[in-house]
């Protein structure tokens, strides 16, 4: 452990946490995977701290697992045996916020919703809004290329990133991208780091694109359907009509039932799905137009409003979804994405998999993007999902791929999805990705065993 | 030349053009750089043709320069000595166009505007619209990550690409990306290929994102300004007001004068800049609102219209810009991009460089993106730009970098910008990019000497 003493000596006091219980608190994310035992945790406060830590890790061949708030759902930030858990949570500076250029330069520990609020003070917004955005960090969002509810209009995290500052495993500092809206000098290294789950280097700053915040509150609708197929048709009709929703969320019967059992929302027996949508374009009648398309496609109940309070009530139902499910057991939150037209078929496939394996699955979907979160609910107290849950998940993943979809829309591969990875990417892609990993991290110390 | 006989034998009849004059016709793009002499040209008609050609090239270590329509402005598709010019112009299939999923799968030889027209038949559009889009190909647009006039609202080519099929130099076929709107399985190889200027492999198909076409014709305005600073202020005001223009083009006095000398547009003596903009949001009064913001910022004349014919007249002035300049001499079309707030300063820098070196520069800008095209006009008949032009260009590039900008917003590095490349990207980035190049192209046969 002399190595560790070197690290403690090289960093300012208090940065290295060597007490096993303390370091252990940094060892897991929101997955139930049993983590390895970290050697220590380092809580970085500056780029220099990161450089020092990585140089030391390179010298001594110690694996490094970077982490933000630990809200990940795929195991990307779980400890590997003997690693340094490198927490970025204290690097919280907003280095710059330029309303004129509509950009912000931030450190990775900034909470996503905090950046959004800082931007709104200038009439701007930071668009990416993963469900965790009140507690997750920009750095974690970058590592997984996080999505969110507003993606359907504003795109994923990648679409809001212009440039990065990255510390490579050997301690060199790499600047990628630029401050400008456009630019094609050299390969797109920015895109390479976004979504790389900490396997190539550690992001210490990001130049992010802000957007004009809508001037009026969004118009909101909700609709209940007697079948998932009808709800899927309504989604297609809304997109085809050019409604440009800024949010379009689908909940299945199991989700609605879990919410109803908890909060008594008056769920009618025949309701099989609910769609909730918003438009922030400021076009009068936008919510009513989407609601009318739902009715044309078989909705049995619709409501539309421009009142923020009423909107909050409708959206509030969606916000309860995860908590309602957690009341029923331990949740494995999954994340497949299919071409939008395949959404109804994918939901049927999920239902069939649930029945086939006797699994309880309840699904919410970012419907406008074809991104589904089937939540597998199982008995509390188990260390990991039981075999019938994995068997159902396996069916769901294979169905998504068969429908032209992907294993993960916005959560990342982490550890959880690695065993399915080669079904999607093929051999050549795997070779190329390992080659790229080797360019940045020839010793394989950056978050080994994750993502690729 | 036995090697060449092998290639001729391996490909279907007619694919290999060995006559030096015929092959030479494929040797250059729209730059005036003297190209090398190609060994031959191959006009591929299928992915198999590309695989055969690259396998042969790998076996015999022959450089390969892929090309589309040859409309590039940075020399990316100019021949290197003894290379195969690999033309993709005959791979023109639209393999799929799905209105439900809003995607198209196309081969690289498809003309960009043709895809846009095919999409519009379904109420959709293909958003990227480089000025060359009636003659340039999707493959060429992908290679340079082409921009265009609509970028200000819809982003660059990268923002419309979901996945690629690529033949690697050793003949292996790589599939990148996906058909879905979101996805984070593995590193972003799609982004890596877009803008890589043919240095990593040859794109043989692309899955592209289409968008809903606006339902009403765009609303258009034009405004004349007594100073560039005033026009720059108007741009800032339009963006800050959340107008979301779908086009926002700036022309300087030299550009207007060239157009006036040719077509007599009645240019007033005091006019130093013109701004032309459009909104396709369908919001009533959108053009009038932008025009009013121009007036508030000092415009001496404004016009706004929703009539397609009148719009065509206003936009027509912008369309004449390049041809008007070509009447005056040979044009070096440059392509710097700066943060939007630096646009007026950058224009002043361009004017100062012109005066300092006695160069004639006339500038158009995609103003909403901060992307400027200073066009250096010099004496016809010269093989390449004279020293005073390069000296002025050097000043312009350095000024753009000083202002936080980039050497190229949408044309690429090609050959023309290589000597300035290290000023922008720094040593670590150069190392990493060469490392990535080596993963895909260890023999260095793909478009050597270009881009990185």
UniProtKB/TrEMBL annotation, chains A, B:
Its EC number is 1.1.3.15. The keyword Oxidoreductase applies. Residues 34-213 form the FAD-binding PCMH-type domain. Belongs to the FAD-binding oxidoreductase/transferase type 4 family. It comes from the Bacteria. GO terms for molecular function: (S)-2-hydroxy-acid oxidase activity; FAD binding. PROSITE patterns: FAD_PCMH. This is Glycolate oxidase. It comes from Sphaerisporangium rubeum. It holds the Pfam family FAD-oxidase_C. Its cofactor is FAD. Keywords: FAD, Flavoprotein, Oxidoreductase. The keyword Flavoprotein applies. It is an enzyme of class 1 (oxidoreductase). Gene3D superfamilies: 3.30.465.10, 3.30.70.2740, Vanillyl-alcohol Oxidase, Chain A, domain 4. InterPro entries: FAD-bd_oxidored_4_C, FAD-bd_PCMH, FAD-bd_PCMH-like_sf, FAD-bd_PCMH_sub2, FAD-linked_Oxase-like_C, FAD-linked_OxidoTrans_Type4, Oxid_FAD_bind_N, Vanillyl_alc_oxidase_C-sub2.
């Amino acid at each position: 452990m002399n190595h560790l003493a070197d690290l403690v000596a090289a960093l300012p006091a208090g940065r290295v946490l060597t007490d096993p219980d303390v370091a252990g608190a940094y060892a897991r994310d929101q997955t139930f995977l049993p983590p390895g035992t970290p050697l220590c945790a380092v809580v970085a406060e500056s780029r220099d701290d990161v450089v020092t830590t990585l140089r030391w890790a390179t010298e001594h061949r110690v694996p490094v697992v970077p982490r933000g708030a630990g809200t990940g759902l795929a195991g990307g930030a779980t400890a590997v045996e003997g690693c340094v858990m490198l927490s970025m949570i204290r690097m919280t500076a907003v280095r710059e916020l330029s309303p004129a250029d509509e950009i912000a330069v931030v450190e990775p520990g900034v909470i996503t919703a905090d950046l959004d609020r800082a931007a709104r003070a200038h009439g701007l917004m930071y668009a990416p809004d993963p469900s965790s955005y009140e507690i997750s960090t920009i750095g974690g969002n970058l590592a997984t290329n996080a999505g969110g509810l507003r993606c359907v209009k504003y795109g994923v995290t990648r679409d809001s990133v212009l440039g990065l500052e990255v510390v490579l495993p050997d301690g060199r500092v790499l600047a990628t991208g630029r401050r400008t809206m456009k630019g094609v000098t050299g390969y797109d290294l920015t895109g390479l780091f976004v979504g790389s789950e900490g396997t190539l280097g550690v992001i210490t700053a990001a130049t992010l694109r802000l957007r004009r915040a809508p001037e009026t509150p969004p118009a909101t609708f909700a609709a209940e359907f007697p079948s998932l197929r009808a709800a899927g048709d309504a989604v297609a009709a809304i997109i085809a009509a050019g409604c440009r929703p800024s949010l379009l969320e689908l909940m299945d019967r199991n989700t609605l039932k879990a919410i109803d059992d908890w909060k008594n929302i008056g769920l009618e027996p025949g309701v099989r799905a609910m769609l909730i949508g918003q438009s922030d374009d400021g076009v009068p009648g936008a919510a009513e137009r989407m609601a009318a398309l739902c009715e044309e496609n078989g909705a049995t109940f619709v409501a539309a409003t421009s009142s923020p309070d009423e909107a909050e009530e409708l959206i509030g139902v969606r916000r309860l979804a995860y908590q309602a499910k957690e009341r029923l057991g331990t949740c494995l939150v999954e994340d497949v994405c299919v071409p939008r037209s395949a959404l109804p078929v994918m939901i049927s496939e999920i239902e069939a998999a649930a029945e086939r394996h006797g699994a309880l699955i309840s699904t919410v979907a970012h419907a406008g993007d074809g991104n589904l979160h089937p939540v597998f609910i199982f008995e509390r107290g188990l260390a990991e999902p039981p075999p019938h849950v994995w068997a159902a998940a396996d069916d769901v993943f294979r169905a998504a791929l068969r429908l032209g979809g992907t294993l993960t829309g916005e959560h990342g591969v982490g550890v959880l999805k690695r065993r399915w990875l080669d079904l999607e990417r093929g051999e050549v892609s795997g070779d190329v990705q390992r080659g790229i990993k080797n360019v940045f991290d020839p010793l394989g110390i950056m978050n080994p065993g994750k993502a690729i």
